[in-house]
Amino acid sequence: MSPCLVPKFWNPADFARLLHTTVAMFVKQRTIRNSVGERSEALIMRPGPAVLAVVVLVLLFAAVGFFLGRQMSKPVTRPRVSEQPAPFESLYRAACVLFERGEFNGCLKICEQLRQDGALPEPLQKDLFVKRAWCLHYLKQGDQALEVIDRALARYPRFHPLLQLKADILLMDDRYEEARPVIDLLAEELPGPRVWLSRGKLNVGLNKYAKAIENFRVVLSCGIPAFEREAATRLAILYAEKIEDFHEANRYVKVLLESDPSGFNAHATAGRVLLVQGRYEEAKSHLMKAVAQRPDHVEVLLNLAVFYDRQGDADHRALYLDMATQIDPESRTNYEALKTF
Q1: For residue 68, what pLDDT band results from cuts at 50, 70 and 90?
Q2: Which has more confidence, 71 or 238?
Q3: Model pTM above 0.90
Q4: What is the CATH number of the domain that holds 102?
């Protein structure tokens, strides 16, 4: 019902006119004679059942109009719906942003606050465990990271992302025998390219290069570009630094550069492999393209330090080595290892 029509139904004058018109529809005209015998027309009301029913309906309709008019004259109040996200959602988003920026201390503090509050739904709680473990690992607190993972696995024993994370951290820390049963469990429950990559890294760490090559080659045909590129990267470095088969190493470098010509990983890997071969100018070209994309990548900075060391340029060697050690104080040890290739 339109609000502009409602007042007409509860205004007394309008209602009287409406009632009169309605009743008149049911009044019959009859011709009668007056006292002097003249014929005249008079209105004789015969309020039968139909007339009474209409009158009742009109009264009811007017009452409804009156009520609606009163209601519409009142200010409308609607419950306010907060557009602000719940506090835990804002904190969780902040933790994600800090994690992506590499600000692990800040991310860890927010994760700890969220853990104590206990307000996160279960899917976010699981992701919180993953972020806390990665932050601790990147902050060189590997044992604490593994403790977080083990506590989470006690709660979610078949949460595969946590199992994969545990395997990754153990492999990065060269704890191969501890990583083996975790990888075996993943291979049994969730076989796939990521598990094959982990098994390949495990076999490289155990000096089982033939098995590692077999593992990585399985991934090359998995149909997932990101995994295929990582497998090609592992094969290129394995052939160049461990097996010293430069023909095969260059073949996989070519695969990388063709699949992702401007990608950071393709240029970083090409620079590393060409540096091992002594193809210094080509190596420098690729390393410079890589560092332009990620100037804080420790491995690329160390390879540039190695390049300038072999060129006898002590100033540039010191520059890139200092940049790397400011990011990761332990990178000087890795630099010494890279110099041996």
Answers
A1: low
A2: 238
A3: no
A4: 1.25.40
HEC profile of 86-125: CHHHHHHHHHHHHHHHCCHHHHHHHHHHHHHHCCCCHHHH
Q: Is the pLDDT of residue 51 over 80?
A: no
**DSSP code at position 45:** -
Question: Is a pLDDT exceeding 60 seen at residue 66?
Answer: no
Long-range contacts of 81-87 (CB under 8 A, 24+ apart): 86/119, 87/119
Whether residue 131 sits in one domain with residue 53: no
Domain that holds residue 132: 89-157
Does 125 map to a domain? yes
Question: How far is Cα 255 from Cα 261, in angstroms, rounded to an integer?
Answer: 10
How far is C-alpha 185 from the chain's CA centre?
27
The band of 336, judged by pLDDT with boundaries at 50, 70 and 90, is confident
Cβ pair 325, 336 in contact under 8 A: no
CA distances from 8 to 11, 16, 25, 62, 65 (A): 5, 11, 20, 9, 8
Exposed, middle or buried, 287 (CB in 10 Å: 0-12/13-18/19+)? buried
What span, in angstroms and rounded, lies between the C-alpha atoms of 15 and 178? 91
